[in-house]
Each structure stands twice: as C-alpha cells, then as structure tokens.
Amino acid sequence: MRIGSHVSIAGGIWLAPGNAAKVGAEVFQIFSRSPHGGPVKPIDQETQEKFAAEMKKYGLDTFYIHTPYFINLGSVKNNIYYGSISVLRQELERGSDLGCRAVMTHIGSFGELTEKQGLERVVMALDKVLEGYQGTTQLLLEISAGAGRIIGDTFEEIAEILDHPKFKKRHLAVCFDTCHAFTSGYPLRNEKEVEKTLQQFDKIIGFERLVLVHANDSKSDLGRHLDRHEHIGKGFIGLEGFRALVNHKHLSKLDWILETPKDDPKDDPDNITILKKLRGD
After folding, report:
1. Using CB atoms within 10 A of its CB, is residue 140 exposed (0-12), middle (13-18) or buried (19+)?
2. d(C-alpha 137, C-alpha 67), whole Å
3. Which among 154, 179, 150, 172 is positioned nearest to 73, based on CA atoms?
4. Which end of the chain is less crowded, N or C, counting CB atoms within 10 A of the terminal residue's CB?
5. 185 vs 57: CA distance, rounded Å
6. Is 81 helix (H, G, I), strand (E, B) or coil?
7. pLDDT digits (tens, 9 = 90+) for 216-270
8. pTM of the model
9. In angstroms, rounded to a whole number, what is the distance separating the alpha carbons of residues 145 and 142?
10. What is the pLDDT of residue 169?
11. Are the C-beta atoms of residues 67 and 103 closer than 8 Å to each other?
12. What is the architecture, at CATH level 2, of domain 2-278?
C-alpha cells in the first residue's frame, strides 16, 4: 500500500514528482492539463525525458492522471459528448507517453435521459474512447457522490457499464472514492460497516476490478449525495472508519490518493501521516 496525494503541475508537468516528494507522497495524481479546459501542451520527447528523470530522482515509480472536470459521457450535446470522448482518449495517450499507471475519470450526468438511455450513451462513448487503443495506461471509472443525476453513485450502475460485452477484453476498472461512496449511501464509519460495504462491492463489481482508492473524509453525512471532501478524521467517516479502510485485506494492497483540502502547506503531509499511523507505521 502506497499513500500519496494530488499534486500541482504548475511550471511544467515534470515538476509533479518533486511536488509529491515534498509532501511525503509515495505515489501521486495529477491533471495533465487544466481541469477547466483551454490549450494543451503536448507531451513531447523532451517532456517525457524530463518527467522520467524527476521520477527517478525522487524514487517514485507510479502516478495517476485525473481527467478534466468537464467530461460528460452522458451528454446529449454533441460538442460536450464528442469533446469528452476525444479528451479521454488524449489523456490515455498522454498517460502512456509518461508511463502513467491509470487515468481516472468521472462519468458524467444522465441529464434529461432515462437511466437506460444514459448508460447506453456512456457505453457507446467508452467504446469509442478505447477503439484501437494500444497504450499502457488503464482507464478507471470513479464512483460518484450522485448529486443531481450524476452517473455512477451505485455499485450497480458501475457494474452495468463494466459488464457490457464490449468491454470483456478491455479491462476497464474502478476508482473507489471514500467520500463519494459514503455520501452516496454506503456506510464506512467503523469496521463492521466497512466490511459490509466492501462485501457488497465485491459481490456487485468485484475486487479484481478495483485499482485505486481516493482517500477523502466527508463534510456531508451518509447518503446526502454532496461531494464535499474533508481532512482525514475530521469528517463524518472519521478515524475509526479510516482505520478499518486502510487495514482492509483488499484495500490495503492498493494505492491511495488524497484529494483532501489544501488550505495550508502542512495539510497533505498531515493527512498522509494520519493514514500511515492508522495502518500501523
């Protein structure tokens, strides 16, 4: 189990490994571009070499990419829908160029579509994203908080996408966000609740499809469907919940990425330290 955080690429994407090392991260996550859109700097040969050198310099070998916020694979607006498909494929290719373990994405919203129509549109989009893809970076779907008509707030919705025949050989997988799962209605406040929730996950989705954990406490209570991240132990999940999570027999084998608030330079190091103590370091 490696614990890290989402870090900045300001000044150059190759600066991310150093930023991760500064906060004591053993693994890290980045946006490879602005999360809000705009011009994209290419991953050229020089960038690849500089990034690889920095990874080696700081003794890091694994990182993840988070896709931009505007991704919506359920949109009925063609510019958003096809733009999302294009950006997702670009991020997989960019990740492969940099040696990224996996690209993680939010799925989008049903909008005015029925759930059936929305899921069919998502499947079609992901099929287009992965068509002919030969890269090494895996695509992960993140469990959502489910505000409004956001897709992926239940294990069943995620499973319906993953189980589609189109993806039998494409190895789509999952990112489990603790805040999102909790505020979607899956209890995680103690060992008993964690065990019950993760047994559900394994039965419906399967641990073999779980690649990454986003470690976030929740500012909103169970089942509120509000995506509000909190520092570890200071939210409604609490320290007892995270002690059970970090020591779970399956989750303890995965990489963990913090997306907790960054109000102070000490926030990331403090949250990383808390998680390490909970796992027994």
Report:
1. buried
2. 13
3. 150
4. C
5. 42
6. helix
7. 999 999 999 999 999 999 999 999 999 999 999 999 999 999 999 999 999 999 9
8. 0.96
9. 10
10. 80
11. yes
12. Alpha-Beta Barrel (3.20)
